[in-house]
Amino acid sequence: MKLTVIVPTYNRAAFLPYALKSIVLQKNAADLDVLVVDDGSTDGTSDVLAEMCAAEPCIRVIATENRGVAAARNVGLTNLLDETELVTFLDSDDLMPQGRIAADIVHFREEPAIDMTYGRMLIVESVDYDTMAPTAGCRRADVRSIHLASGLYRRSFLDKVGLVDERFIQAEDTDYILRLFDALPNYRLTETCCLYYLRHDGNMTRRHAESRKYFMLALHKSVQRRRANPLLGARKLEFDVKALGEVDIY
Questions:
Q1: pLDDT value at position 190?
Q2: Do the Cβ atoms of 97 and 193 come closer than 8 Å?
């Protein structure tokens, strides 16, 4: 199955090679297409990408002017290959754990009717780029949180849901995931660790006031949809939101 991994990036030249390596190491698990959307980087990202594209034919790049992460995700969604059947995401400062694709793609091969799978994430304070895993002994939190990289999505289902809301500066992924679940998909929750989410000083979510503003906007939009459709109100979402408030590295 052709699987496109959309990787939006902006000035992440120090992290990006490792994020891409963590994906490419799994190319035996699927017919991989790694689509990097460079959102107007000015830090040498283009040089990093030129080198990696020359070494790995499954990586392709679309360079755009800087319009923000929501727009970058939409560039990815509107430039899928004709043969793409499945889609997932990885932010360019995170890592995809080895075995992540193989663990969840099997559901799509065995169950043609499912629209998406949704797994777990490990929030970590440091990673070892030699082992492509969290640094031994570092603080970490294993949660089922709200992150696009936690899912594998059937392309036909994403086509029905539509594009990311570009009004969001942050929490565009929260809004999109809530829209995905509010579209009443046939989905499977898995115990797969889908990403190592690296906490560092450059995380957008460190801008706490902005993060809260757009998170609340995403929740407000979901409440409006649920009020309009009683079927949605009966479906409980199973995220570890409470647990995140107790994670001191978050």
A1: 97
A2: yes
